[in-house]
Design brief:
With about 260 residues, the protein is an alpha/beta fold. The protein contains eleven helices and four strands. Helix 7 packs across helix 9.
Length: about 260
């Protein structure tokens, strides 16, 4: 009997280690090459701790298990897929779990395109770098490969097409792409957020803001443009737009949400 108890404890410890502590195979199969690509191209990732970087790569893998990425007009490269997945993870990284239930696939075009989805050089009206599809393109995202890459190559312009389009999807989760992320904001902050948006949009329209001018188009575009700024140049936004920075921090980091009284 004296030997049975230690054996039972040992068996229990082994069961706990191999079953309850066993890593989810879905989160350990990402290519080793991702780490270097992310370090070289994604500043957000580079500034994370080693533990957080691993979690980031795991989140990318889960996103790619749920969403296909394909190319039209060129051969898809690993960096293309990595940048798409990074664009998806960055806005929701502080959430323990997030699934883009309103997205099934991302289609990459080689360059900017027009409203008819033409990307050939013979079409001079190719002004679109990315869009969240509607109608027959519902649940799809279309991105320009050149715009996607530019967003991660140049952080100084506070412009990131990939993040911009995924923020539109986050905005759309409540049923409307209206610049009011009701799933992210406490109800009591919705009206202050709308008032702040219009105040900032007026500054943009009056050329009194360093927020990209496209943000003055409408509420939805303001939210997406402001989010690009927030993730690309957080320290600069905190200094130049402290109120906006604080509100976006509450949106994208659940830990920063005020506790209920």
């Amino acid at each position: 009997m004296l030997y049975i108890l230690p054996l039972l404890l040992l068996a229990g410890a082994a069961l706990y280690f191999f079953v309850f502590r066993a890593p989810d195979p879905r989160t350990t199969t990402h290519p080793e090459s991702w780490h270097k690509l992310l370090l070289d191209h994604v500043v957000f990732y580079k500034e994370l701790s080693a533990i957080a970087q691993k979690r980031f790569r795991n989140r990318m893998m889960l996103f790619l298990e749920e969403t296909y990425v394909e190319a039209v007009g060129f051969e898809l490269e690993e960096l293309d897929t990595v940048l798409v997945a990074a664009s998806a993870v960055i806005p929701v990284f502080k959430f323990k779990e997030w699934h883009y239930e309103n997205l099934t696939g991302v289609v990459l075009y080689p360059d900017n395109f027009n409203e008819d989805m033409n990307f050939d050089q013979e079409h001079p009206d190719r002004m679109i770098g990315g869009m969240v599809g509607n109608g027959r393109y519902e649940n799809q995202m279309i991105l320009s490969r050149s715009s996607l890459h530019h967003g991660f190559e140049n952080n100084s312009d506070k412009h990131n097409t990939g993040i911009h389009e995924f923020v539109h999807l986050i905005d759309k989760v409540d049923g409307e792409t209206d610049g009011v992320p009701e799933r992210l904001l406490e109800k009591s902050y919705v009206l202050p957020w709308i008032n702040l948006m219009h105040k900032e949009m007026e500054s943009i329209d009056s050329n009194k803001s360093d927020i990209r001018k496209y943000g003055g188009t409408n509420q939805a575009e303001f939210f997406a443009v402001a989010a690009e700024y927030f993730f690309s140049r957080p320290k600069l936004m905190k200094r130049k737009h402290p109120e906006l920075y604080k509100m976006l921090l509450m949106c994208f980091d659940p830990r920063k949400k005020p506790k209920a009284a």
